[in-house]
Amino acid sequence: MSAVQDQAAEKSGLAVRLLAGQTAALARAISIVDRDGQAVSALLKAIEPHLGRAIVVGFTGPPGAGKSTLVNAFIAEMRGRGKTVAVAAVDPSSPITGGAVLGDRIRMAEHTMDPGVFIRSLASRGHLGGLSASAARVADLMDAAGFDVIVLETVGAGQSEVEMAEMADVRIVVSAPGLGDDVQAIKAGILEIADILVVNKSDLPLAKRTVGQLQAMLALRAPGDWKVPVLTTNAVDRTGLCDLADAVDRRAAARKMKGPRNALGGRTRRLLAQSVAKYAEHRVLNEANATIDAVVADLQQAEIGLDDAIAKILMQLCESQKNG
Amino acid sequence: MIEVLLAPARVLVTKIGLDGHDRGSRIIAAYLRDAGMEVIYTNPWQAIDAVVALALEEDVDVIGISSLATDHLLVPKLMVALDAAGLGHVRVVVGGIVPDEDEADLLSAGVSKVFHPGAVREEIVSVVEQLAIAANNERPVD
Prior knowledge:
Helix content of chain A is 48%, strand content 13%. By secondary structure, chain A is of the alpha/beta class. Chain A folds into three domains: 1-50, no CATH class; 51-261, Rossmann fold (3-Layer(aba) Sandwich); 268-323, no CATH class. In chain B, strands 2-1-3-4-5 form a five-stranded parallel beta sheet, with helices on both faces. The model of chain B has no long low-confidence stretch (mean pLDDT 95).
């Protein structure tokens, strides 16, 4: 057996155990897709027919809004409704050292021993957009392992996390009163992707005002077929969780009628675009090639424009790909 | 056999038993983070079963147990539980106050290294990094 076949067989053994819902297999598979450069196509191919069953729920919002605590309460509510839950919680990696302290699950400790709950901490590893580069695949693996609800919790930058929109069936933007300019922080970009707006820490005095501000912003938007609700929660004493779970179910049902999320092609397309860009970047930066060198020199000397240079590079990459 | 890690080492930094002095574990978490590792950090007072569940879900390479008040005596029990869960490849280090006469017991129970007061950042980081590599090489093939 060749090394490649060997690896494929090994991966499909993992896939079988993953599809059977084994925790260790899911944990291992996530590490494999989270590690760049690993050949994972056999694994992903094996799980492909089993995708699209789970509801993927994204939680984003500014740091300190209470996302992790709210996710903890949301897990409890969903467990109470008989659903199993898998969580991928993303925390930032240091841009300097690449290291990270992953602490989201501190708030979810009560679910550690529940076999119906799987929680995995992921580091953003320099990926922008609030998730990790592997998040879409991690969600797929959790789906394949048979979890009913998959929660994606973003790093909490709160502004550029539009990426979540393409991965989640239901997008929840969490805010809290008294964070100063928190409404400001979520209004551009992130507000447009919200299916549900949550004002957490509803016991704080300014909660009503925050709700009012959000409703005023929503009122300015063109009406769509989904009316974005503004809900209040108190994740610590668990008020408002029932309404939140109901809203998630309603939104998910509306989404599912439009077909499984994979049919939309959004995530697959994004993954492909990223991979193509990464491939091109690697080759342009690392390949010793006279044509590429010439294009760089021409661009530097303003002999050609950037658009021309891109076209030439793409042609060169295709040429040498064919010949190589 | 790998000699360098392909992705950041994943390390669970935690405390078992009843001792809640977590300054040490926080400092270690920061050291490892600053050395480029991914640290899963928990509150103190973890049960042994919970540590096993965390190590399994997070697929860690190394577990660091901080102990300042005799909780290191529980670590041999943790080693048995890890083995039973199929996590025999995961390396365990203990740091804090461990009397010399207990160190041999911990090592013979399978603990890879005991750090005493005075251990320096460079030593801790380099030992954990090497143990993560060893754990990866021994991880069962699926």
